[in-house]
Amino acid sequence: MSKLIYRHLYARFALSLIGLALGYAITVLTRLPWWTLFLIAIAWVGIGIKLRWGRPLNARYRKVWPWSLAPLSLWGVYVYLADSFGNVDLGAVFFHLQAGMAEHGGAGKMVTAVVYTLCMLAVLASVTWLSRHDQRWRLMERFLAIGLLASNPLLFGLGQRSAAVVADEADWLDHRYVSPPTSTQEEAPNLLVLYLESIERTYDANQFGDAYEDLNRLGERGVVFEGVQQMDNTGWTMAGMIASQCGVPLMPAGLLHDSQFEPLRSVVPGIDCLGDILAAQGYRLSYLGGASTEFAGKGLFYRGHQFHNVKGKEELVRRLDDPDYVNSWGIYDDSLYDMTVDEIRRLDEADSGPWGVVTLSIAGHAPNGFPAQRCIERQGPFDEQDILYSVECSAWLARDLVDRLDNEGLLDDTVVAIMSDHLTMRVSVWDELTTMDRENTFILLGDHLPPQRIQRDATMLDAFPTILEALDFTLDGHRAGLGVSLLSDQETLVERHGLDTLNEHLREETALQHRLWEGLAPQRQEPSPSSQEQVIETPADRTDEVDIMR
User: Fold this and answer.
1) What gap in Å lies between CA 209 and CA 297, rounded to an integer?
2) Staple partner for 401: which of 12, 281, 337, 368, CB 3.0–4.6 Å?
3) Residue 237, phi then psi, degrees to nearest 5
């Protein structure tokens, strides 16, 4: 009798664990409120009790290992990624594994990952117990395993990339790539680029209050670009920087070379980016970031593309008056911007040619942000949850930095680019954001740029040629990389083909991937005349686009 009681309790416990996990996964992957997970779990347990799962009348115990354990584990990984970041980007996963995740600031994520792992092990143990004690589960879970494998977005994405690798070389994007200019001009303005971590323009909506207001006030002084969408493989920090400085999506090196499991020694070495172009012009280039340059290859990218002075958390923390005034990712933005002012003063006083400074903030980092002490003194206590508090902090500090530099005369003959590195990941207002048409921040300030708002269907790839033209570079057809200057009336790739089409071709592309990683990957072969014909949809399209792209 005691065995029956224990078996009854084990069955209820196993069903409850699986029900809670199922409810949690559904609420993460949909817009259902969090409390509905308990309703789903109750419904699941009710069905299990009604059908006597785990304690059938004709019980036949068999010591088996369920087929569904591996597929369930893969779904567990996917749910963890979706819960942590909102949108699961396989390109980001592959790139970070290869570029390195040392010195990351996600200590809290590590704890979450451990909790997820323990919960997943409990679910796997529950499925194993039910399969061993109920022959109906042994039969059902085999079909469950097939369904889980077929429906997992991770495996679907891997299958798409594998098919692209073994297929004939796809070059739709590569055929549209335009090498950036190498010519110089006599008078070159300075350049200041402020990347605001995850501060998308969508926060300008009324339902988010005044969180974005300081960026709106900055935009009144220059050019505000509206409609800048996010293409695949540009949705994390390093990818967003490469999109806006090189005009290409970041396609990870992946399986292109034999050492794909070794750390990268360079990042997109096959193309010229903003740093290469400006260095050839005689610019003195600096990068200052609050987080470590060891994380995700930032240091490799900037040093490899001609930035002379590259400093992150490790170098900047030594300059703090209070070495304990840091967060889990690195330097707070008020400290970073103080050091940015010092750096620009140094470069300006040297008076030996134009300078370029790039900074990356940290205040808006998902999920809750890292508001600086100056913001807390201005905005009041931070509840450690509200991302809008951190967005307001990031926007205000950026405006304050521009005002400080302007008041000192350090922005004379200077183009200032203010932009988000990418759309935000899962934050406290995620459900509201995901119902809206989301856009990246992109603002240009400069004495020769009259205030205006430009509405274009574009991506951050178009920021690259736009910045170059703002710096008075002459571009072939107003194009560089895959981007089009938004200061021109030339059609962007999104306007011509649509974002869905670009993303579809990106999933099939191999030629552009070879171009990015030239030197690490086998030599690209020039496409044959017949393959060039195949990338043009219509004769009319060919007449216009081939002339522009070459």
Assistant:
1) 36
2) 337
3) -55, -55
Q: Which residues contact 35 (CB under 8 A, 6 or more apart)?
A: none
> How many structural domains does the chain have?
2
Rounded to two decimals, what is the model's pTM?
A: 0.80
Measure the CA–CA gap between 313 and 431, rounded to whole angstroms: 32
pLDDT in tens, 475-510: 999 999 999 999 999 999 999 999 999 999 998 888
Do residues 145 and 198 share a domain?
no
Is residue 234 located within the same domain as residue 291?
yes
On whether the CB atoms of residues 238 and 301 are closer than 8 A, the answer is yes
Is the backbone of residue 87 left (phi > 0), alpha (psi -120 to 50) or beta? beta
Q: How many residues does the chain have?
A: 550
Dihedral angle at the C-alpha atoms of 314, 319, 320, 324, nearest 10 degrees? 40
Amino acid at 154: L
Token pair listed for 518: 């030239």
Q: Provide the CATH number for the domain around residue 201.
A: 3.40.720.10
* One domain for residues 409 and 328: yes
Residues 271 and 382 in one domain: yes
| Residues 223-235 pLDDT 10s | 999 999 999 999 9
Q: Are 196 and 364 in contact (CB under 8 A)?
A: yes
Residues 145 and 207 in one domain: no
Residue (of 428, 436, 426) closest to 389 by Cα position: 428
Nearest by Cα to 418 from 444, 448, 455, 395: 444
480 φ/ψ angles, rounded to the nearest 5 degrees: -155, 135
Q: Which domain holds residue 315?
A: 185-250+267-507
DSSP string for 77-112: HHHHHHHHHSS--HHHHHHHHHH--TT-S-HHHHHH
Domain shared by 236 and 361, yes or no: yes
Helix, strand or coil, per DSSP, at residue 34: coil
Mean pLDDT of all residues belonging to the chain = 85
